[in-house]
Amino acid sequence: MKKIERKGEVIFSSYKRGEAIHKAISMKREDILFEIRESKLKGRGGAGFPTSTKWMLVSAAQADQKYIVCNADEGEPGTFKDRVLLLEYPELVFDGMVVAAYTIGAKNGIVYLRGEYEYMLNSLEGYLDEMRKDNLLGKNICGKEGFDFDIIIRLGSGAYVCGEETALIESLEGNRGEARNRPPYPVNTGFMGKPTTVNNVETFAVVSHIVIKGGEWYKKLGTDKSTGSKLFSVSGDCDKPGVYELPWGTKISELLEIVGAKNTKAVQVGGASGICIPKSQFDRTLAYEDATTGGSIMIFNEERDLLHVLKNFMEFFVEESCGQCTPCRIGNVKLLEGVEMIEKGKFTFHHINNLKELGKSMQVASKCGLGQSSPNPFISILENFREEIFNGNGGIHGK
Amino acid sequence: MESKEKLRAPISQKPHVVEKPKDPSYIGGTISIEINEKKLSVPLGTTILEACKEYGIHVPTLCYHEDLCMAGVCRVCVVEVEGMRTLQASCAFPITAPIKIKTSTPMVRKARRHIIDLMLSEHSGECYSCIRNSNCELQKLAKEYGVDHYTFGHVDKPRYEVDNSSYSVIRDMSKCVLCKRCVRTCIDLQEVGVLESLDRGRETHIGTFLDKPLSDVICINCGQCINRCPTAALRANDPSDEIWNAIDDPNKHVVIQTAPSPRAAIGEEFGLPAGTSMTRQMNTALKRIGFDRVFDTNTTADLTIIEEGTELVIRLYKALVKKEQVSLPQFTSCSPGWVKYLEHYYPEYIDNLSSAKSPQQMFGALIKTFYAEKTGIDPANIVSVAVMPCSAKKFECNRPEMNDSGYKDVDYGLTTRELAQMIKEAGIHLPEMPKGDFDSPFGEASGAGLIFGATGGVMEAAIRSIVEFVTGKKAEDVFEKANIIPLRGFDGIKYMEIPIGNEVGTVPDILKHLVPDWNWLKGATLKVAVAHGTANAKKIMDDIKAGGKFSECHFIEFMACPGGCLGGGGQPIPTTPEIRKKRAQAIYAEDESLVVRKSHENPYVIRLYEEFLKEGPCGHKSHKLLHTHYIKRGRYIA
Ligand SMILES: Cc1cc2nc3c(=O)[nH]c(=O)nc-3n(C[C@H](O)[C@H](O)[C@H](O)COP(=O)(O)O)c2cc1C
Ligand code: SF4
Ligand code: SF4
Ligand code: SF4
Ligand code: SF4
Ligand code: FES
Q1: Cβ neighbours for A78, distance < 8 A, ≥ 6 positions apart
Q2: pLDDT score recorded for residue A393
Q3: Which residues in chain B are closer than 8 Å to A332, comparing Cβ atoms?
Q4: Which domain holds residue B20?
């Protein structure tokens, strides 16, 4: 498949390697935090937590060690924007990590790289070596007395849940990838029990630009609650799938136009755990406050069987649940069974409604984001595509 | 590759808790919260569950256990916290800010019911054919939430094969609700870590290394996982059918020995409060069930003290006087869970283990020799049962070397729970039984044998005797009422120094063949330690390895189970710190009420040495029958 990317105004704008680091070390830490707060940058990994708040909490925590973790697990189906960043713009990502280290006072950085991206490992290691040679990493970085920081890369274990930040930390510590209880949060008790900030690849990349151009500049783009731009990984039924940088607040219909999608029936925003949006709602905007996503946009045209799509999603969750908490481990199985019942016409609406209610309980009672969001496609597809899914089939009672 | 050392069990779920302030009265040490609109203040770091408990609000739980670190996995304890999008697991939520909690909103109730429904949908079992019927936390939850049908269906076939490879623990994973209590128990309390979550998603299950049968991995058979399992997924390997058969067989002479801990706990199975001693009622009940003789294991506990104490004297004499190379400190060997732990994890210390058998096995060997001779019963027709608080005793009596009588020394190890079941089956309500006595030729034992049941008890019994032997003083003159308080209580590790002083007594007759006098102990200080729960044992062992303070000890008591035998893996379920405390109180109270409270004063033990073990403690015959050897098993399995 041809990947076409659209040059955007922020992330894909021009940037010189090391630029952000040089700028940062000439600034006071508070000023960097201030700029990031001004920019209203929210995490790009999906949860949308304000980056400045996270960094402030880590920088305020008292500890002999702090860690910067770059979440490059990119396991969400339909997402590949972090791969593009790492392959083509590593300077943005790594510089952003160095800026973060300077800001919060960390000496060690870890990139948790998706297992399937092992092929990048050599080039990334090489890139880090270059940075060390140029004193962008190492001791007294760029001559800044006492600013020591280095980055290591660790390969992920291949489980989707390891992208969840606390499961990621468990995995880094050599344990089974299972989400931790929160609170307390990683900002206080993260990797090895030390204050840790986990951020998405894209978040770091954006930081590099914000440090240079300022928060005020950044928030001119996007909406009030979703400032700046976002990388979207667009896949599915369109002419030009690929990674696009678009401002937050872009309408779904606009995006469809840009990527050359025709006869679109539905758009799955936010990957397998996102929501499925029908044609009638294509004027909704891509934004944290409306249709939010960590990047994944999947386009389905009229020919797609959405029940089948839903089944794939649910099979994914049944397999990828870490299995520690009841609502997610068993709940997803029940939702999948529900889909299969519909497939065979052996269902009752009473039971399907029970399953929807179950989905709502899973959303609030699961231990981590996986189980909390896995019912999203089930609920949204059954609600938004009722006609198609049931297609006049009344189930066992035939009504 | 990680180093072999690193392959040890990980700590299951690091607590990730907020440390509570030692003194909550300092500023910021307490936090004002609201539960169901009631205002109250709690110390910083209190969990929501603890706060609710404190104020009398019931929150259902399943994966939570008082003895264990939190897991937050079952999610039945969820509550609403104002301002948070999702529900919070109250057992795993430390309070660090003023919050408003609601414990019974529609969303909360619905989520809890859904969770219970989900667990039931995957749970293969029928309560009426289940060992945990009426004592099952899943069943209780279902009742509490009024479950009267399966909303999300119900499995019709078991998902997993039952693993009954172990002499001690049977695993029926089709009944497992994945609360991970067993995992946390095995790792955090026992530092063994043979149980772990395996696979992901719907395939997630609790398994052993490479899903091997339990008998093939380094399980120490302590059964602590059974005691904390909320369901029947883990249970002991129950021999009661065979025992019934033996009882019903007129050609068999069926005897039972009863350990000190079951009597302090069996009442719980009949609805009595923890800490109600049932010694004499049990004697009657056992007779009525059909056991031909009822013996008191405490007798051989007393014998163990004499043998083990003598062994210690020999070791010390060799070390201090003859300057020979001997292994010190000497470790107790009456806890078969501990023995196996050492065999696996510290095989290089095998010589430190006392060669004395456990009281159960000593009794076994004596019943099929001494008792058989005395009564003229063919040992081949004797069936020897031991009621024990312990699941490891089942493994112990099946160790191939335990047949010094020429027969299997102990035929069956029966747990307290299983005995209670047999008593119920016989239509007997234990608390209503008239009191009965133990049978001869062993009869009444000493209080020293009795306190074997509590952590520190073996050491206390040993010290009572050793002090009297060596100093010639009465134990009562050295310790008030002969109670050695520093060795009691539930601190994980206890340590004590006993100065011998400059006055020594004369060597008692039974030791005369071993040491000429006690002058060599003048001015010496006896250093002893006690550990319970193998996690604590590990701490001591690592200290010894590193040449720390415990390497200078002379004698160390190790019990595999937290609390000692009274917290054993065969004891009534549930187990909590409070319950174990009550059981200990019962044991110590009974000890104080007895006339004979020192092992060497037990008249039956004295008679045994006169009539049967004529060469005295550690003599030839006692070596043959009462001592054993161990196996260097190591940590890695083939
Ligand atoms: C199941 C699950 C998978 C996740 N996978 C990823 C991932 O692959 N990459 C990522 O950056 N964040 C992922 N997240 C979000 C992270 O938990 C975390 O919020 C994020 O790394 C924080 O970075 P940010 O603040 O920069 O967004 C995942 C979350 C969940 C619940
Ligand atoms: S929600 Fe799913 S992935 Fe998350 S902890 Fe629970 S079982 Fe694991
Ligand atoms: S484990 Fe509990 S719920 Fe399951 S069958 Fe047994 S008693 Fe019933
Ligand atoms: S019996 Fe003891 S060692 Fe064996 S699995 Fe259970 S807790 Fe672990
Ligand atoms: S075996 Fe028992 S204790 Fe272990 S996870 Fe299953 S239900 Fe819980
Ligand atoms: S009891 Fe709190 S999550 Fe299980």
Answers
A1: A233, A235, A236, A268, A271, A272, A296, A297, A298
A2: 82
A3: 201-202
A4: 4-104
